[in-house]
Amino acid sequence: MSVHQNKSPHSQTLDISINEMERDVQTLEWTPDSAKQIGMELEGSSPETVLRWGFENFSPSIVMATGFGPEGIVLMHLVSEIRPETIVFYLDTDLLFSHTYELRDELVKRLGIRFERVHSGISLPEQALRHGDKLWDRDPDTCCHIRKVIPQRQFLASYNAWITGIRRDQTVFRANTKLVEWDYANKMVKLNPLAAWTSDQVWEHIQINNLPYNPLHDYGYPSIGCWTCTKAVEPGQDPRSGRWAGNAKTECGIHLPSIQKQ
Ligand code: SF4
Questions:
Q1: How far, in Å, from the CA of 165 to the mean position of ligand 1?
Q2: pLDDT at position 231, please?
Q3: Among this protein's residues, is 252 annotated catalytic?
Q4: Cα of 7 from ligand 1 centre, angstroms
Q5: CB within 8 A of 211, min separation 6: which ones?
Q6: Exposure winner among 60, 98, 105, 216, fewest CB in 10 A?
Q7: pTM of the model
Q8: pLDDT tens digits, residue range 110-140?
């Protein structure tokens, strides 16, 4: 099965409304049902097999997303060996740890990753002017929507498929993640090659291949996002409990829509 290469080169113009970006699902050969069917057929396949399937069916209209977590490191390693020209994008909220930017630079050196920075176009002072200071403390959903969800949606509008590092055992919302599924929010195919992996498998791959990772993981930070919303956790605690600690929020919103509508 192939996809129509019918999209214009991506743009990061950030004043387009989400409605203007809405794509007609019918213009693509891929549908929620066909993605579901492929997801079932690929169940049990290795991450390499899922990636190869994705590249064969969508290149060059396929990108990988990373937040620089250990899963992203594993996928970047595999992608660098299978299709090194793949663009890997990250959401720069202006609030990432300095260690994260250093890791990005190390990955360019070690694996030759082609990164693309995706940004809201809204500086922190501008956000404070419009929504008040420290929006992340008062309304993290809106803050994530402005700095992550909208920029990502606009970026993905130029592609037909994207690759993520989410795993089923990370949160209850991710428990039904398929290796390949339909992303309802972005109206495109989503590949989750590590969906069935455990955290131990991820770390084993990193260690065996001597891959770089964020040093904060060695200091009690199993899951790392913006420094404003990330805390260290005690041994044995839920690895994601340090994200938006003290708030019911567990997801920034970039993965929720496709998970909830499955
Ligand atoms: S993680 Fe926190 S600071 Fe980062 S975008 Fe979301 S609410 Fe804002």
A1: 19
A2: 82
A3: yes
A4: 30
A5: 73, 74, 77, 110, 205
A6: 98
A7: 0.84
A8: 999 999 999 999 999 999 999 999 999 999 9
